[in-house]
Amino acid sequence: MAVSYTGVVTATGEGRNGGRVAAADGLLDTGLAIPKEFGGAGGATNPEQLFAAGWSACFLGAVRRAAAERGVRLTSAVIRAEVTLNHGDDGEFGLAAVLDLELGGVDQRTADELGARAHQICPYSKATRGNIPVTIHASAA
Fold first, then answer.
1. Handedness of CA 27, 31, 34, 35 (dihedral sign)
2. Is beta strand 93-104 parallel, antiparallel or unpaired with respect to 134-140?
3. Most buried among 8, 58, 101, 135, by the most CB within 10 A?
4. Tens digits of pLDDT across the chain (141 residues)
5. pLDDT in the model for residue 2
6. Which residues are bridge partners to 139 per DSSP?
7. What is the Cα–Cα distance from 84 to 7, expressed in whole angstroms?
8. Residue 76, strand partner residues
9. How many of the other CB atoms lie within 10 Å of CB of 46?
10. Distance from CA of residue 19 to its chain's centroid?
């Protein structure tokens, strides 16, 4: 039997510039702000942070699945996702991402292999593949 889940979130107000996002189930309800680093007021989350949160959590699950497929026991796993909003010379906006993995209980080669396999498994990685630049840095912790 196929399993699926649909997260439903509604954005209101001014979007990233002082708007709000709220999940239909009430578990997410937060204000949005343009980051200070991008000339905004800051003081609230932004779409890049929310995307990075989802991707890092999903990628961690994919790493754990990749390790299980290979019979590898991780003693620890930390994923840090950096999602960068770029404003190009052409006036258009784009994204870039860096995924930093710290994997305990494995050597560097295994860490690299698990990162590469997780990038094939993770739905966020699949959705962005070929659309934005993504760099994966794996390290054995």
1. negative
2. parallel
3. 101
4. 688 999 999 999 999 999 999 999 999 999 999 999 888 999 999 999 999 999 999 999 999 999 999 999 999 999 999 999 998 889 899 999 999 999 999 999 999 999 999 999 999 999 999 999 999 999 998
5. 86
6. 102
7. 23
8. 104
9. 19
10. 21
3-state secondary structure string across the chain: CCCCCCCCEEEECCCCCCCEEEECCCCCEEEECCCHHHCCCCCCECHHHHHHHHHHHHHHHHHHHHHHHHCCCCCEEEEEEEEEEEECCCCCEEEEEEEEEEEECCCHHHHHHHHHHHHHHCHHHHHHCCCCCEEEEEEEC
Stated pTM of the model: 0.93
- State the number of CA atoms in the 13 A half-sphere of 119 facing the CB: 21
Task: Decide: 114 and 138 in contact? Cβ < 8 Å.
Answer: yes
CB 137 within 8 A of CB 119: no
Two tokens at 117? 């396999």
> Are the C-beta atoms of residues 37 and 52 closer than 8 Å to each other?
no
